[in-house]
Amino acid sequence: MWTAPTVEMAWFSALCDDDYEFLGAPDPHLLSSWEHCRNIVLTAERYGFDNVLLPSGYQLGIDNTAFAAGMAPLTETIRMLLAIRCGELVVPQVARQMATLDQMLGGRLTINIISSDIPGETLDSEPRYRRSTEIMYALRQLLNGQGVDMQGDFVKLKIDPPRIRTVTGKSPLFYFGGLSPAARECAAAGADVFLMWPDITASMLEVKADMDARAAAKGRSLRYGWRSHVIVRETEDEARLAARRLLSKLDVQTGEDIRKKSLDSASAGVARQAALRDSSDDEGYAERHLWTGVGRARSGAGAAIVGDPDQVLAKLHELAAAGIEAFILSGYPHAAECDLFSRYVLPNVDHGQLQFEPHDVTL
What we know:
The protein has helices spanning 34-46, 64-71, 91-104, 125-143, 181-190, 201-217, 236-246, 252-261, 268-278, 309-321, 334-344, and strands at residues 8-12, 51-54, 79-85, 109-114, 148-151, 156-159, 174-177, 193-196, 223-232, 285-287, 290-291, 304-307, 326-330. The chain is of the alpha/beta class. It has a single domain, classed as Alpha-Beta Barrel (TIM Barrel). It has an eight-stranded parallel β-barrel with strand order 1-2-3-4-7-8-9-13, surrounded by eight helices. Helix 1 runs parallel beside helix 11 (334-344), helix 3 packs across helix 4 and helix 4 packs parallel to helix 5. The termini are far apart.
């Protein structure tokens, strides 16, 4: 019986070529494409998920903004968590784009802020996150229907808000993740939902306490999300077997090449995922139901909740009781694992879309 608070349950659509039956062994049928990623989203909506993450990578996969626009008339209830890369946007243009997209979605847009570099350039962590804070401030002002008059280190803008507005007339929620000191300050200043990658619960609580303090110092508060993979089967033995099978065709060099290909491969968050793998047992388990094997073949979120339906539900319950209000899950292949999770676990979770009034971004 689910007795934890109501949480938002989201799935993941693999727009960045991150879908496999066997990690490290590309399958042409699972590569990012309009048809494949559309089917993942429609599967998630059919099962009643509240949101779906649409990732973005400059070198990988299809464009997620165009994809979200294409999905708007094909969906009715599921929100779109659109990743936007700060290094690749012009604020006035993206404000109009996001407002238009929210109208097309009937108010179902949420935004995942990615503190990316400009493609082909590299900016140190502190100024890069400072740029993201300035962009979040200007973008939220415009999406709230307010003008911007700022001369920041990166955003120099004096402009009235665009006529085009979101359905509510207010900015969609900003989801954001990052572990470095600069990333944490950026999140405390501008995020609504702070996303964490998988970790042992004690470490997650340490990060949450630090972020609560940083946000409070800026007169703000945060909600918290958890982004991880999941492998659920009828029994724990079957789930662990599925985890082993997922890695059965991966060699060490291929995994390393995949990780290095990601633009976030040197981030503090990725370093923490690597440390979690290094501290795991011989099968890759940092905790009984937290398996780090996924991180051997991908950057970013590198662990999965593994177990039978009751065990996976108990882990979600534990995290929700510790303060996690939004879960963004995925599995391999994504449509197949979405089906399994939706049949075994999702019906027992009290879930719904996050609804709250976000704070302004502080500079």
